[in-house]
Amino acid sequence: MQENAMTTSNFTTILLADRPELAAQWATLHWREWGGEPGREQLSWWVEQAAKAVQRTGVPAAVIALGADDEVFGGVGVAEFDLDERQDRSPWIVGMIVCPDRRGEGIGHALLSRLDAWAAGIGIDQMWVATGGRAVRFYQQCGWEWVEDLLTQQGEMATILTKQLSPTTS
Questions:
Q1: Which of 56, 98, 132, 139 could cross-link with 17 by S-S, CB 3.0 to 4.6 Å?
Q2: Is residue 151 within 8 Å of 159, Cβ to Cβ?
Q3: Across the chain, what does the average pLDDT equal?
Q4: What domains does the chain contain, in order, with CATH numbers?
């Protein structure tokens, strides 16, 4: 098992940096969910983005959830910026995804918990996320607090939430 991995009976959460060869699987989940977005239609774009998140001590980084057979069930990234309108704050949660047939199993909560621990461990004390719909409630259940609703330059409504992280003790 990888250092600092978190395991449940059905999956393990690890830093993508611990298994960089799985970046393409995580990218494929994104492409299937959001591959129709302008400029993001090609799987190669998603693979390139995932490859950037293979870091242990800086941003961008990612946490993935793995099944026993190394199938990637989900993942979440952290990046310096997400919205052009809010580059006065950083870092941002990006690309939270769980396989549709695995949703509701606690994978999303476990991914955020693992990411929180990693971020606090490298000295990040606050993170941000831009989301919408049912995901707002999900993040609130994970301890995130509403900041604002924002009409983006693309004409979409985004709910901005934040979370203060507690420093970890070794």
A1: 56
A2: no
A3: 90
A4: 6-164 (3.40.630.30)
Provide the b/e sequence for 47-66 (b: ≥16 CB within 10 Å): bebbeebbbeeebbbbbbbb
For residues 129 and 112, the answer to whether their CB atoms sit within 8 Å is: no
* pLDDT for the residue numbered 29: 94
Amino acid identity, position 169: T
CA 82-107-46 angle, 5° bins? 40
**Residue 24 neighbours by CB distance under 10 Å:** 16
Return the beta strands (E) in 42-91 as ranges: 61-66, 72-79
Token pair listed for 70: 């190394």
Q: Give the tens place of pLDDT for each residue, 74-112.
A: 999 999 987 777 878 899 999 999 999 999 999 999 999
Angle, CA of 120, 125 and 131, to the nearest 5°: 95
pLDDT of residue 64: 97
Nearest to 83 by CA among 145, 152, 2, 6: 152
Does residue 155 register a pLDDT over 90? no
